[in-house]
Design a protein that fits this description.
Length: 338
């Protein structure tokens, strides 16, 4: 009679700790944010005042709106360098349409449609024509701003402050501008899309293992195109709000804006090479860029120093991104989980 061997013991997979699941770069940048608030709060008497916090929220709002969409783009392993030019094009278009006597409601729809159109152009060329997004958006960045400059001949187009669109830039609720509340709503929607929907799962999957996602039956080209369309739409919103806030449309709006947005997303811990996106991190990154500019201004420091400081912080963030695994292993050792 044969003797049956006892069953092999079941090996239970160890549940990752909260530290192991956490985005180390985001935690590091959260610490940087706290340090900046403390430092500028000590150095500038009115930095932590309610009026300045309200002003800071308005300054950060436009960057944050586009950073939410850029989080999806970068998480899929793409990039969009044309958002600054789209902001300028939509701002100019908004001012020109209002000047021509168009109703504000039609202007708002047209402005958003213009941003969505340029996002679709980028998406179609990058996703379906297989042109690298960096090259596509570098080219459209020049084309879109060139069209805005051709449209206005380089002149700023004023907006009548009595019009509804202009009033959006001046509206406030509970002490904060309408721009800040729109940015907050954008963050909530973006966070839900990224973390709670199938679309968000596809975005993360494409950035890390695109071929596996494609073999699972997902139209990866369509997902990548949609993310670039979201970036275009967000830039359209930003362009409309920029015109409303400044009371004019200028082809020079958004110069270098794309770098600020990308910096905010990467600073927050979204992997520059795709596969790991964090909406909370994008908020932190946008706040950091805004706090640096705001705090240095209050301290009377030359505005030319702001991009230098922001660039150095960005380099530090990329360094943390590339060494996230090392930080994770260090944390595991400290917690005795190796």
């Amino acid at each position: 009679m044969s003797v049956q061997a006892p069953p092999a013991p079941t090996v239970l997979a160890k549940t990752p700790s909260r530290w192991e699941r956490a985005n180390k770069a985001t935690l590091a940048m959260l610490g940087v944010t706290v340090a900046l608030f403390v430092g500028f709060g000590i150095g500038a008497d009115n930095f932590l005042s309610f009026d300045n916090m309200s002003n800071l929220a308005t300054q950060v709002a436009i960057t944050l709106i586009v950073a939410v969409a850029m989080t999806f783009v970068i998480t899929t392993g793409q990039i969009d360098l044309s958002v600054g030019s789209t902001v300028a094009f939509v701002a100019v278009g908004t001012a020109e349409m209002l000047k021509a006597g168009w109703d504000s409601s039609i202007v708002i729809v047209a402005a958003l449609a213009a941003g969505l159109f340029w996002g679709a152009v980028n998406g179609w060329l990058a996703a379906y024509q297989r042109i690298p997004p960096f090259i596509v958006t570098l080219a459209t960045m020049s084309v879109i701003r060139g069209l805005a400059q051709l449209w206005t001949k380089g002149f700023s187009v004023p907006i009548d402050r009595r019009l509804y669109v202009a009033k959006i830039g001046e509206a406030k609720f509970l002490g904060f501008s309408a721009l800040a509340w729109i940015a907050l709503a954008t963050v909530v929607i973006g966070g839900i899309l990224l973390a709670r929907t199938r679309f968000g799962n596809y975005v993360n999957g494409i950035g890390s293992q695109e071929e596996s996602v494609r073999r699972a039956g997902v139209n990866t080209a369509r997902i990548k195109m949609v993310t670039l369309m979201l970036a275009g739409l967000a830039a359209g919103v930003a362009g409309l709000l920029t015109a409303a806030r400044l009371g004019s449309g200028s082809a020079n709006s958004g110069q270098g804006f794309e770098l600020t947005v990308i910096a905010a997303v990467v600073l927050g811990g979204t992997d520059l090479f795709g596969g790991r996106g964090t909406m909370i991190g994008s908020i932190i990154g946008a706040v950091i860029t805004g706090v640096i500019a705001n705090g240095l201004t209050l301290l009377g420091v030359s505005p030319f120093l702001t991009p230098i400081v922001t660039g150095l912080v960005l380099l530090a963030a990329i360094w943390l991104n590339l060494r996230g695994r090392t930080l994770s292993e260090l944390g595991a050792k400290l917690l005795g989980r190796t």
